[in-house]
């Protein structure tokens, strides 16, 4: 008990302190309350920092962190200045403010910005203004390739402005994108797109871009998108360009500084096209008469008929394309190329037929039956149609335009390259025809010497040698040679027109000579040949026209279908 009493008394005595000790205890309690306020303030600051971190992570609220930092600094200043005078209710207000600001961050609302804050850029292109002219894919959209298919660029490194095409070793597979264009912004639709190729460089002078230093893509409409290499968020779209790959695997783009323009005015084009339309009925008349009239429907006449028909078809389509401004790329250009090439190959067949008569049929006194004449004509037809068809197929394979060189000028290398399957074949076939005509001339000299040196039985020689056929073949050879001279002159003028860089009026005269070839054919084979009697007899229905005796005798002697 003593111990317990002592303990009790000690506790009572300890409770009843002196006034000095009581004041000292009160001061200690007040200091503890101040420490509690400091702890509560630190807790609030901790909560504010967490709220600021969460708000900064939300999109569109980048300035929220600065707002929280400023409010936290204000709270810290208030706590430091009046720390001992604050009560527990002040902490409740801070907590209320914290909970309110947290709700703003979670709902995604944007707090009021300070005047010094900068506006944010849009996260994508949706808030930007669209360009008025957007790339739209069409059936006529083409990717412009500099070199023909199967060929690549061969860049001269010492002079980047010069380039040429060479046999290809790499596959041409450029990047084609479908995009929507905005103001300094491009939205890739990520749609797989393929385009047909248009061959050739349309530029007189051009700028060159290399994929090692520049960034460019082909858009869905075939235009070229060039990104600013200096990172200025700008771009350009070029419609007049060509793109290709060199042997090192790098893509090069050529954009036009000045574009190739047609050097022949539209009025001149119309004028020459009208001349082609004038030639067309002349050619059709020659073709119709040599197919209809029995006396003209021999092997020479059938070849002449198809030659005239091919030229008439080519001239008609060619003139209509230029008069009405029809696009000459693709199928129409290939049809014109085939018809014009067939015309020159049929002329070669006519020259070869004269050669065959002079050197084989006439000296050997061979008269072909109707069946063999048909086989002979079929061989000519296969040659005159198959070789042009093969050339056109090569043109299609290379992707070159089939339009012949009429109305064109080879101002650039790509335009000259586009005629590789027209100008060289025609030049070659005309040269071979010229050689055949020279050989035929020596054949006629050989027959004349043979006829003069023959001193045997004249009756037997006259029976074996067909003098009438010899005269017909001789007239055919004169007409063919005369037409060959006009064709060679016209072709030389066409080459001068194509490779000339000037815009002189004499170029129009060259095209006029080409446009009137149908008139020359009519004059040579129906007027100079004097087919008037045969035509008039057919016109007046078999003999109603009065025929003189000499003409009747000439008609009765024409009995050989070959």
From TrEMBL:
CDD domains hit by this protein: 7tmB3_Methuselah-like (cd15039)
Please provide, in alphabetical order, the Gene Ontology terms of the cellular component aspect for this entry.
Answer: plasma membrane
Instruction: Report the membrane topology from the UniProt record.
Output: Multi-pass membrane protein
Q: Which domain of life is it from?
A: Eukaryota
Chain segments carrying region Disordered: 102-131
Locations listed in the record: Cell membrane
Q: Where are the transmembrane segments?
A: 265-289, 301-325, 331-356, 377-396, 421-444, 479-500, 506-528
Q: Which UniProt keywords apply?
A: Cell membrane, Disulfide bond, G-protein coupled receptor, Glycoprotein, Membrane, Receptor, Signal, Transducer, Transmembrane, Transmembrane helix
Comp. bias intervals (Polar residues): 102-112
**Comp. bias regions, Basic and acidic residues:** 118-129
Question: What are this entry's molecular-function GO terms?
Answer: G protein-coupled receptor activity
- Read off the InterPro entries from this record: GPCR_Mth-like, Methusela_ecto_dom_2, Methuselah_N_sf
Q: What is its main location?
A: membrane
Q: Which PANTHER family match?
A: G-PROTEIN COUPLED RECEPTOR MTH-LIKE 1-RELATED, G-PROTEIN COUPLED RECEPTOR MTH-LIKE 14-RELATED
UniProt lists the family membership as follows: Belongs to the G-protein coupled receptor 2 family. Mth subfamily.
- Stated name of the protein: Probable G-protein coupled receptor Mth-like 14 isoform X1
- Species annotation: Drosophila suzukii
Gene responsible for this protein: mthl14
């Amino acid at each position: 008990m003593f111990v317990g009493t002592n303990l009790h008394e000690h506790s009572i005595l300890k409770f009843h302190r002196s006034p000095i000790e009581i004041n000292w205890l009160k001061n200690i309690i007040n200091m503890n309350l101040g420490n509690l306020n400091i702890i509560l303030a630190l807790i609030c600051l901790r909560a504010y920092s967490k709220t600021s971190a969460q708000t900064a992570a939300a999109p569109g609220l980048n300035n929220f962190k600065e707002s929280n930092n400023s409010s936290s600094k204000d709270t810290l200043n208030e706590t430091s200045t009046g720390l001992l005078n604050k009560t527990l209710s002040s902490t409740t207000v801070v907590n209320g403010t914290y909970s309110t600001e947290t709700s703003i961050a979670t709902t995604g609302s944007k707090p009021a910005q300070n005047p010094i804050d900068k506006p944010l850029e849009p996260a994508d292109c949706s808030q930007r203004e669209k360009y008025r002219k957007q790339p739209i894919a069409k059936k006529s959209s083409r990717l412009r390739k500099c070199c023909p298919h199967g060929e690549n660029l061969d860049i001269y490194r010492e002079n980047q402005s010069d380039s040429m095409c060479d046999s290809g070793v790499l596959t041409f597979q450029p990047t084609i994108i479908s995009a929507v264009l905005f103001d300094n912004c491009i939205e890739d639709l990520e749609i797989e797109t393929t385009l047909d190729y248009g061959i050739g460089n349309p530029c007189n002078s051009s700028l060159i871009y290399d994929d090692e230093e520049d960034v460019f893509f082909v858009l869905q409409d075939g235009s070229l998108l060039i990104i600013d290499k200096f990172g200025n968020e700008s771009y350009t779209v070029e419609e007049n360009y060509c793109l290709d790959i060199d042997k090192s695997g790098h893509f090069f783009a050529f954009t036009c500084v000045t574009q190739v323009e047609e050097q022949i005015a539209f009025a001149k084009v119309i004028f020459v096209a009208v001349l082609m339309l004038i030639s067309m009925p002349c050619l059709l008349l020659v073709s119709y008469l040599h197919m209809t009239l029995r006396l003209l429907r021999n092997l020479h006449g059938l070849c002449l008929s198809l030659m005239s028909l091919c030229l008439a078809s080519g001239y008609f389509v060619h003139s209509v394309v230029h008069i009405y401004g029809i696009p000459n790329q693709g199928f129409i250009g290939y049809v014109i190329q085939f018809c014009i090439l067939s015309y020159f190959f049929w002329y070669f067949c006519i020259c070869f037929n004269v050669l065959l008569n002079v050197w084989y049929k006439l000296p050997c006194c061979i008269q072909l039956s109707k069946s063999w004449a048909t086989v002979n004509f079929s061989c000519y037809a296969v040659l005159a149609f198959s070789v042009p068809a093969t050339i056109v197929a090569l043109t299609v394979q290379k992707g070159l335009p089939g339009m012949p060189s009429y109305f064109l000028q080879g101002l650039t290398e790509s335009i000259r390259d586009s005629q590789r399957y027209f100008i060289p074949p025609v030049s070659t076939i005309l040269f071979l025809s010229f050689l055949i005509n020279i050989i035929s001339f020596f054949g006629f000299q050989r027959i004349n010497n043979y006829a003069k040196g023959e001193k045997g039985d004249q009756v037997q020689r006259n029976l074996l040698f067909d003098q009438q056929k010899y005269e017909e073949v001789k007239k055919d050879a004169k007409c063919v040679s005369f037409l060959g001279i006009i064709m060679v002159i016209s072709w030389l003028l066409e080459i001068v027109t194509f490779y000339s860089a000037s815009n002189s009026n004499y170029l129009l005269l060259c095209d006029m000579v080409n446009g009137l070839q149908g008139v020359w054919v009519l004059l040579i084979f129906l007027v100079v040949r004097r087919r008037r009697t045969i035509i008039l007899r057919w016109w007046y229905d078999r003999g109603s026209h009065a025929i003189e005796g000499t003409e009747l005798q000439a008609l009765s002697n024409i009995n050989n279908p070959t």
